[in-house]
Design goal:
263 residues; seven-stranded mixed beta sheet; 6 helices; globular; alpha/beta; Metallo-beta-lactamase, Chain A; 20% helix
Length: 263
């Protein structure tokens, strides 16, 4: 698999960066856009990085948050006809607390390219989208203050709309996740991949506090149990990544805007 990071929170001055994620994948004979950041800047970066988005055969939205999906209207406008796979609950009322809407732009709903997915969706041989919603968590899912609005009521987010791309190629399993809101420990227990790529959503756990440090110690210990190589980004957090690396070494590596990876 070949991967190019089109958008991530960090990167060189020669590229646009923003709080968001967008990956370009070449795998299993397919060219895939996985998420599109919060604006159209991922497409500008693609041009600078030599990635021809006109060759993309399918697009995937990992979950219904603006920083992963609000760049999709530009992509679909410039490349009509490419199917976009997103969960049927992606357009729900996704909030931070009870005031800040963090869901998708309503403009995305108007595109005929949308293909709504359920618990398990086979995209092509070796490519499957999974919500893992039928799996029993090995640890509680922490909503980290995120909510879903149902009428006038705000409930803790259950992340039903989040999906992971499972790649099975050359005898290996590769998991690609946007934010791992369901819990990186849960995803590892459920999927057991050889390679895991994506955000861990640990940024709310400050390693400078006893509570945050305890969470990160547990995560590092659990991830170390698997013979997996981890590549993380976006919502993991810089201090949190540094802590994991202090425990796991090169088993966990950072991805930045403009990075190229072949696994």
């Amino acid at each position: 698999m070949r991967l190019t990071v089109l958008m991530e929170n960090t990167g060189p001055e020669t590229l646009a960066v923003e709080h968001g994620l967008s990956l370009y994948l070449e795998v299993c004979g397919k060219r895939i856009l996985f998420d599109a950041g919060q604006s159209g800047h991922f497409a500008d970066n693609a041009g600078r990085l030599g990635v021809d988005l006109s060759g993309v055969e399918l697009a995937i939205l990992s979950h219904g948050h603006y920083d992963h999906g609000d760049g999709m209207p530009r992509f679909l406008r410039e490349h009509p006809g490419v199917p976009l796979y997103l969960h049927e609950a992606a357009f729900g009322g996704h909030y931070h607390g009870a005031e800040r809407y963090i869901g998708l732009t309503p403009a995305l709903q108007s595109y005929q390219e949308l293909r709504f997915t359920g618990a398990r969706t086979a995209l092509a041989p070796g490519l499957t989208l999974l919500t893992c919603e039928e799996q029993e968590p090995v640890c509680p899912v922490d909503p980290c203050g995120l909510t879903r609005r149902e009428g006038d009521v705000f409930l803790p987010e259950d992340f039903r709309h989040e999906q992971v791309l499972l790649i099975e190629e050359n005898g290996r399993r590769i998991a690609v996740s946007g934010c791992s809101h369901k819990g990186i420990r849960n995803l590892m227990a459920w999927l057991r991949p050889d390679v895991f790529i994506g955000g861990f959503h640990l940024k709310d756990h400050d390693p400078g506090t006893p509570a945050g440090r305890a969470v990160l110690e547990t995560v590092a210990a659990e991830l170390s149990r698997y013979p997996t190589q981890y590549y993380t980004c976006h919502c993991t957090g810089g201090a949190q990544l540094a802590f994991l690396q202090s425990r796991m070494g090169d088993r966990v590596r950072a991805l930045h805007t403009g990075d190229f990876l072949e696994v």
